[in-house]
User: What shape does this take?
Amino acid sequence: MNVLGIGDGVYDELSQELKQSLTEYYRVDSMDDYQQMYRAVAYFAFKYGKIDRIESHNEHWLETDARLRTDFNVLGFKSQDMNQIKRKSSMKAVFNAVGVPAARGRVFKDFEDAQRLVKELGYPVVIKPDSGVGANDTWKVNNADDLEAFWNQKQENISYIMEEFIAGTIHSYDGLTDQNGHIVFSSSYVYNQGVLDAVSANSSFFYYIRRDIPEELEEMGRKIVKAFALKERFFHIEFFLREDGSYMALEINFRPPGGAGVEMFNYANDIDIYQEYANIVQHNQFTADVTRPYYCGYISRKSGRDFKHDNEAVRAHCGDQLMKLIEVPEAFVPVLGRNGYVVRAKEKAELLDMLAYIDA
Assistant: This one.
């Protein structure tokens, strides 16, 4: 198998691990310049023959991936599929169609339409781009003044969706499908707060992989995966766990979880999910034995706060249960913090104790 890379980073600055995994690397000046990306794929196709897969596993590049697949006739989502997999309003329609509850709301046309909609939904509401990632440009609107402030500061030529505010914690259903659309790996994260809260409050952000997946959550997740006909693909579906104990779908991301999420799959299961994904692509086989022997958690440390325990103390306290200490890339610092810590334990109480120690 030839693994071919395209990026705007200098080759000498790539990690040694990445260099060893690539057959060849093609550098472009800007990955946002589609013509440069097209020429890179055309060069690889001329040199190596027909391209079998094009994947970034990154939300930002989903549309570029699809456009390249369309132009080079490569298996996977094409440009015509983007409306359904990028727009939250389209996701909501699919959730409702398969009987999975979702927050009430819709895209609104103008300020008058927004006023009519908020009367129907009631304050507070959440407003965000219909096509967007994470908490970017997301507003919690508590009253008429907030609504007017949003309207005066919103981006032009962007479609926004307004939804009722749902009180609850965020739980996810994650996994990987094979070439036939069967789920061959699944997992679930529990978050202490949403991305919007983590950014606005500048507070510690933590999440963990649970050892068991609640039956209702898994049933809903499987319905959604089937409805979108996902094949040979990672997915990350977010739900609200409401105060009454029921789940409500928030959105689906057609890529792996961000941050340290993929490596946490490995730590929680003692598997190599990277190799298993390669096995699916090349042979349509998933060979790992998934028993979920560990809880695995991530916690951030935000800048501007003094912590009781330095890194050496954390290492001493957690021992070999500290799996990784991460210096977070600048772009993700507002959400994930300046430093991140990945820990695992067989018992939930032990995991939470380590997370609390790091956060003290």
The chain has a mean pLDDT of 94. Residues 217 and 281 are 27 Å apart (CA to CA). The two ends are 47 Å apart (CA to CA). The chain has three domains: 4-83, 104-164, 168-359.
